[in-house]
Amino acid sequence: MRAPLLSFVLLLTACAAPSTEVRSWGTMREALRDGHSEARVDAAKVTNATTVGVGAAAGLAGEITIVDGRVVHTIVDGGTARDGATDEVPATLLAVADVGSWREVAIDRAMDMATLEQWILDEAGRGGIDTEKPFAFEVRGPLRDVRLHVINGQCPVRARMMGRELTKPPFERELREVEGTLVGIFAVDAAGALTHHDSSMHVHVVLDGVDGEWTGHCEKVGVGEGAVLRLPGM
To answer: What's the CA gap between 137 and 181, in Å, rounded?
Structure first.
């Protein structure tokens, strides 16, 4: 009887753990440092109603964010950001997760990016997520001190780090306070693969604009009191 009982216990444990599998195509190092920004996957073809994710379009032609099963693709056009989504959204870099259910945690105080990063890690651990593996998260509500960009052929973060001039300026904005949705992949020790070198988070923001939703990559972001953290649930 011991073997069946052990199998039953393992089955219960597996069923109780949040589903956090992250699928990815391309790496930050390949696309942003090494110049291999060819199309690797069509974001529209790997998206269903439960998919969330972040990435960059082929040729580094804009940012891609998947939220609530919607693919939001924003490009730079004449110095402004506009919708670039079509039936096909080729991505050179993409990380996605299919989250069937979410566990929501109220944020009761303002946090800067470093504090938020540690808090997400702690909350994920408390919720039974294996934090040694990548997982998706969202934050919805008031955001603070947002510095974002929409990539335009070159990564501005890497260009500044290397002291290089950008030949095609990105779209960049700093927002003191704004309502929006953060979509992110949290990955410990994944610098150069899923995240930049100085963070365990690859985070995009989705905002409402005059012509609909648009998105950008967050270089810096904080949250305000009243926001809600969403983590994969049981």
So the answer is: 10
β-partners of residue 70 are 67
Burial 70-105 (b: 16+ CB within 10 A, else e): ebbbbbbeeeebbbbbeeebbbbbbbbbbbeebbeb
Task: Output the pTM of the full model.
Answer: 0.90
Nearest-angstrom CA–CA distance, 231 and 153 = 32
Q: Which residues pair with 231 in a beta bridge?
A: 103
CATH architecture of 18-232: 2-Layer Sandwich (3.30)
Residues 63 and 76 sit within 8 Å (Cβ to Cβ): no
At 155, the pLDDT band (50, 70, 90 cuts) reads confident
Residue 140: closest CA among 221, 38, 42: 221
Max Cα-Cα span within the chain: 70
Question: Is it the case that residue 122 has pLDDT exceeding 50?
Answer: yes
Rounded to whole angstroms, the Cα distance separating 183 from 9 reads: 34
Question: Are the C-beta atoms of residues 25 and 93 closer than 8 Å to each other?
Answer: yes
What are the residue ranges spanned by the domains of the chain?
18-232
Any alpha helices (H) in 104-221, and if so which ranges? 113-126, 156-162
